[in-house]
């Protein structure tokens, strides 16, 4: 996590600004290194593809991906049957088994191609929407591709650019002190990026967030939908005038029509949704006509019925992805755990990229601190917790949090204390009970819930 590691927490605020700037410098050299501008041109060029050109492009890349997975990826080599391997070599995706998150979580290196030895592979840990951390390995060119993709298909479609000053809400611990009187942001001077703390948003701190937007001349915002929404609500409650923003691009949580309306009113600009994952397993973004286009050069996206057959447009089903962007750690027919539906209407923008009508069932409960602070996702609680297989946060009362964890071998009181500390850091003075359990019950629909709230909201 670089700038956001434990050392960061004990630095004074000025040094934290410097640390995020140094972190920004590191990212800048990674992003704009060799290949970046070529990737930008390629993503631009493919937007003009016809359906036939997209089909050819996907077939060509899928064939290569499946053949190398049979030969060089230990997991597929060991788990696919001989007939599945033959199907893979014929490019028949539908004959291959669905991939769960558990095997990747258990042994992410079994998914790395053993004929590739990239220098400085980057590892990203995510707790995902299920609370189960997954290690994603990116080569540096893959990382550059993912940044070029976001510049072209996300920022540019919304009329902004990563070269403009921006503000970000994420799960990072930007301000380590839960009792802090501010500032609730840190400024990365290299990227001209304000990192906001998602954990200090309250009606009486909203003005400080908006002041930071003005002070750093921020042009657009990106990150957690729920955080931008909560800030918008507090701004309207307190009659705080709209800052001078060109767009907000939300990620990570479902953006409901109500959230969009409140945000557009508070910020005075358009709000765009991006649907993607840290694993780059899927990427969909909103064009100028407000339609959510899937990028076919990131993944082959299937929406499936429970019996495995494909859904027709406007029929909700499970999202299963085969990542074409990730050559080093290929994810083939990966179950994202999301439910979505295709749109039957083509988009007037003319891009021949499939449109999602809706991504359903990603929104997570909001947890509220005893002082009324509304916490968003508990992203970060289970990241870097090697002895936790699965975790669930249950809010029993304003000041009482119950954490269920499915431990792996080696789980000790140190792990328990670390979880308690992380929650108190985010919520302040709450009682936290950590309970190791054999399994975490699923909902009636079979869904895992990362957060359960017993509060009447
Ligand atoms: Zn469009």
Distance between the termini: 34 Å
CATH architecture of the domain at 36-147 and 278-360: 3-Layer(aba) Sandwich
Strand content: 15-25%
Instruction: Output the CATH homologous superfamily of the domain at 36-147 and 278-360.
Output: ANL, N-terminal domain
* SSE-based structural type: alpha/beta
The tally of helices reads 12
What's the average pLDDT? 87
Describe the structure.
The protein is an alpha/beta fold and 457 residues long. Among the domains are: 195 residues, 3-Layer(aba) Sandwich (Rossmann fold); 87 residues, GMP Synthetase, Chain A, domain 3 (2-Layer Sandwich). 31% of the residues lie in helices and 23% in strands. The protein contains twelve helices and 20 strands. The longest helix has 22 residues. It starts with 5 loop residues before the first helix and ends with a strand. The site of zinc ion (ZN) has 7 residues, from loops. The site of zinc ion has 7 residues, from loops.
Task: Tell me the layout of helices and strands.
Elements: H1 6-9, H2 13-31, H3 36-46, H4 51-72, H5 74-79, H6 82-89, H7 102-106, E1 122-126, E2 134-138, H8 140-155, E3 166-170, E4 185-188, E5 193-197, H9 206-215, E6 220-224, H10 225-237, E7 247-251, H11 257-267, E8 270-276, E9 283-286, E10 292-294, E11 299-304, E12 317-323, E13 334-342, E14 355-360, E15 367-368, E16 374-375, E17 388-397, E18 400-407, H12 413-427, E19 431-436, E20 451-453
Parallel strand pairs: 3-5, 3-6, 6-7, 7-8, 17-20, 18-19
Antiparallel strand pairs: 1-2, 4-5, 8-9, 9-10, 10-14, 11-12, 12-13, 13-14, 15-16, 17-18
The structure holds zinc ion.
Zinc ion is lined by residues 287, 289, 291, 293, 347, 349, 351.
């Amino acid at each position: 996590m670089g700038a956001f590691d434990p050392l960061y927490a004990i630095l004074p605020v000025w040094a934290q600004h410097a640390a995020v700037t140094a972190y920004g410098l590191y990212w800048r050299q990674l992003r704009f290194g060799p290949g970046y501008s070529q990737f930008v041109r390629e993503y631009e060029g493919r937007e003009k593809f016809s359906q036939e050109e997209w089909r050819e492009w996907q077939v060509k890349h899928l064939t290569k991906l499946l053949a190398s997975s049979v030969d060089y990826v230990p997991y597929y080599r060991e788990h696919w049957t001989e007939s599945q391997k033959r199907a893979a070599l014929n490019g028949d995706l539908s004959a291959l088994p669905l991939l769960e998150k558990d095997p990747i979580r258990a042994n992410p290196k079994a998914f790395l191609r053993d004929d590739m030895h990239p220098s400085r592979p980057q590892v990203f840990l995510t707790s995902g929407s299920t609370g189960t951390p997954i290690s994603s390995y990116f080569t540096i060119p893959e990382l550059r591709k993912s940044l070029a993709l976001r510049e072209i298909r996300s920022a540019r479609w919304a009329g902004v650019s990563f070269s403009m000053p921006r503000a970000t809400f994420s799960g990072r611990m930007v301000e380590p002190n839960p009792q802090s009187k501010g500032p609730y942001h840190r400024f990365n001077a290299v990227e001209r990026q304000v990192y906001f703390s998602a954990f200090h948003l309250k009606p009486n701190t909203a003005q400080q967030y908006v002041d930071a937007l003005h002070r750093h001349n921020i042009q657009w915002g990106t990150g957690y939908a729920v955080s931008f929404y909560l800030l918008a609500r507090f701004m309207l409650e307190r009659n705080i005038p709209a800052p001078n923003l060109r767009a907000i691009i939300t990620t990570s949580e479902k953006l409901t029509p109500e959230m969009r309306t409140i945000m557009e009113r508070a910020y005075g600009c358009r709000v765009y949704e991006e649907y993607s994952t840290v694993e780059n397993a899927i990427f969909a973004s909103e064009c100028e006509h407000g339609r959510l286009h899937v990028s076919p050069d990131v993944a082959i996206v299937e929406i499936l019925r429970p019996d495995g057959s494909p859904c027709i447009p406007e029929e909700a089903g499970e999202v299963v992805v085969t990542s074409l962007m990730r050559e080093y750690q290929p994810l083939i027919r990966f179950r994202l755990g999301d439910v979505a539906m295709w749109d039957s209407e083509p988009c007037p923008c003319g891009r021949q990229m499939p449109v999602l009508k809706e991504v359903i069932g990603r929104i997570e409960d909001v947890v509220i601190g005893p002082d009324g602070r509304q916490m968003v996702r508990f992203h970060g609680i289970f990241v870097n917790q090697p002895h936790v297989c699965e975790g669930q946060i249950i809010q029993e009362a304003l000041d009482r949090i119950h954490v269920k964890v499915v431990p792996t071998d080696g789980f000790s009181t140190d792990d328990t204390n670390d979880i308690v500390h992380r929650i108190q850091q985010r919520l302040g003075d709450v009682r936290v009970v950590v309970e190791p359990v054999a399994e975490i019950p699923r909902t009636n629909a079979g869904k895992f819930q990362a957060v359960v709230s017993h509060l009447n909201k």
